[in-house]
Here is the input.
Amino acid sequence: MKPLSQVLYTLFEDQPTHGQWVVACLEGSWSRVLGEKLASVCRPVTFDKSNLWIEILDRDWDQILQSIQPDLLEKLRAATANEVKGISFSRQWAAGSKI
Here is the structure.
């Protein structure tokens, strides 16, 4: 039997709003998935083609988040029934940042 989360992600899979739905689900569980401290310095912003864009809100955490990217990805894969296959970062403070 599939976990409920996997069934729910599958329901929206081919819908135009699938990416928005994934981000909304993650926003609701962000601190539980990453922990309070990490959740306070970054946020999910866009999901497209299995890649989650995460905005880094605090420049002091930029290198730290980059260095733990594999661990973050594993947590996000577990939380989304492997829906998230990659993560990229954008920076709130960077001029001309993506997203």
